[in-house]
Amino acid sequence: MVLQQQQKIRIWGWAAPDESVTVSVGTNRATAQPNASGRWQVELPPMTASKTPTTITIKGTNTVEIQDVLIGEVWLCSGQSNMEWTVAMSGNPKEEIAAANHPLIRHIKIPLVPSNLPLDHFSSSWQVCSPETAANFTACGYYMARHLQKELDVPVGLVNSSWGGTRIEPWTPPVGFEHVESLKGIFNSVIGRTPGTPSYRERLSAHIRAIEDWTAKAKASVNAKEILTPSPSYPAELTPFASNQDPTMLYNGMIHALVGFPIRGAIWYQGESNHDDGMLYFEKMKALIQGWRELWGQGEFSFYYVQIAPFRYGDRDPSMLARFWEAQATAQSIPKTGMVVINDIATLNDIHPPNKQDVGYRLALLALKNDYGRKDLIATSPEVETIEPLGGSLKVRFKNTGGSLKTRDGKSPSHFEIIGPGSGGFQAANATIQGDAVVLTSDRVTTPVAFRYAWNMLAEPNLSGSTGLPVGACRGGTVPDFFNSVPESKDYVLVYDMDLAKLNANIRYDVDRSDNVPAFDRIGYLVEVTGANGEETGVFVSVRAFTSDAKKIGIPTSASQARFQMGVEDMNVFSNATGIKTGTGIKTGNIEFWPDNYAATNGAKVSGASDAVYDFGDETAPPVDGYGSMQIHNIVAGQTLFAINHWRAGDRADIGIGNQEGQQRDWTFSANAGTYPNKRLRVYVRPKQAQ
Which residues form the domain of 596? Predict the structure, then answer.
């Protein structure tokens, strides 16, 4: 095995309560008395790195010897499958295994054991790195250790506690969740299921009392002619976790027994199973890192992690992964952390990029710079430093470039987008490198004010620093209000504005100017929602006026007497929502505005509509003051552009942009309004121009 150099050496175990235990490592010796439960622990003085094996001797009534012990650098390796991924499954395995003759590198794999309660023991063995053993080492850890061992010329130990497919929550201890306000719900759930805690005792005692009361009634009713209610069910909040994906289960089973074993730091490769968490993952990283550090009791040890690679996560929103990358990047604000970017070595059809050599090398760079004094190294990927609007262009300057930027393929930087007032959303940008900066322009953006880079789960961008370390997904600047990015927005005046959190049977707008509206020739609808991940999505649809009565262009209540099921012409669509077909002059618009109930039957015979599912050809039904529909569609594209249905249900109303996933494309019966932290409807008209 390997013990961590330059730190007090903690060794612990169990013995009979009356035993005296003496531990020696080399010439250092300490004695301990077991506590009432038999546990003992000693701390021996720090030792310097040594390639000469020593022996740990533990002596009580019996003697245990651990031989071939080296003093060097110890790293905990944790996460899901990309950390568990072995040398044998990674790139160039045959040659790498044959060359793995590194007796100063040692590795131990922690067994895959979830547990509801913290475990003090596990069964495993350290292995000396050789062509016979290295095939099953964590590849990321091994390639990091190989580089460190070469550079430092000291032994390196790898403690591999990883499990494929796992989320971050099971690796996190209760104290981690406790100290992060947004995760207190997880903490309470864990503590409520933990025997011995006050909340567990209180809830279980209440259940026992309820069972006792029921039992007494049951006994009394045996000979009575009366109905006995069923016995109280065991409370769900007391039911033990059962999965390796449940909070704390892997901390308990695979980390707790290691806590206190001196390490230099930890490396972490995880996130694929949390890829839709958005910025919440940053909160979970805080819980994990701070929880481990607090329990380990050796201060803020280094924690380096890998930003997950681009990959096709089905038909999900392509920007979802970019928001997750942003959360991972934000976690670098936690002291003594660092992130490795790997968007240059991804495999879009394989969630396990085989190139673990570069991953390990980049992790080693972080350690060499921050832990081993190699201050001259550039170990971090370039990051945005300043953003400078230059009228018709945007200049983005990066730090950590090693002096300048470059592209791996010698072409112009790819995957940059910019946005500005009236640009109609983000547009692909032309990018030119100027030293450590990139200048961005687009014919479709006259005054760019913000940018984003690699903002797609399939993005494999080509920009890097002179060091070769790639630039990760990023964004910056102030994105204009969505409506102000719509090219025709300046031509419209507001009629209605409503916070959709206020939906109910009696519609009251926050702004209602319908009594003072000029004659108009077009009507525009702006719907904006904020998802649970914080991402803001909007759609603006304008159509040739289908009525001259401003009282009938808002939410079609029975009081407004608005009822329209018809095609609309000359439709313009602008949206930042993924998948929405945008464009101008669209001839295949369709509206379904009514306060009535409705059925899926295509009573209006709308071309392409279904009789079986709710889409863009539904048929009204009694009562008039019923479910209610406010929908605009693009028939040829087969899309619902937006829907606001069943407004009388309040936070159980239906609200959506684009087609709903699943059967009912127009959001009917989705009852999802409450899932949006923010939601808003605005209705505009374009005043007729004087002839």
Answer: 490-687
